[in-house]
Amino acid sequence: MIIRHAEKPADSGAPFGVDINGNQNPESLIPLGWQRAGALVPFFAPTDGKPQSTGIATPQYLYAAGVGKHSNSLRPQETITPLSEKLGIKIHDKYLKEDQADMIKDAMGRDGIVLIAWQHQDIPGIANLILGNSTTAPQTWPGDRFDVVWVFDWQNDAYVFSQVPQRLLAGDGDSVISSS
């Protein structure tokens, strides 16, 4: 499964990014993003064990883009930190934004369910690496969508692609990302 990191600061002015301690940081999530990060916990790891959406499963491995020369963004890691803490599993964040191919090779080598949090511009390319083509998944992720999960299920020796709207916060859509 792949999600986009949660809501980010405006290009200029409010809302501002804040770190986990409430300190202003342009590389962190905005308060709405922190709300989404918290809401993702019961979405992916419900207390009763029954996900609210078909196609969603509790991850056994978490990946997020690391901080490096092409991106100082903490948002992918911050988005899944509450989930990591609830599940008691480490976030694999050694792969930088530009290391998508190596990250996917590592993630696909895992025996279990993987959740990846990444920057939206790179998600279609990651999907293409998983699927082995550039025709199945949409080739752009809209800049205003933070509320969709891309799901890749292994069936009959190939990955099948689907999308699940999160519907976690006010304003979340109930539609998927269009291929056009």
From TrEMBL:
Annotated segments matching region Disordered: 1-21
Biased composition regions of type Basic and acidic residues, renumbered to the chain: 1-10
Superkingdom to which the source organism belongs: Bacteria
Name of the protein in question: Histidine phosphatase family protein
Lineage summary: Bacteria, Pseudomonadati, Pseudomonadota, Gammaproteobacteria, Methylococcales
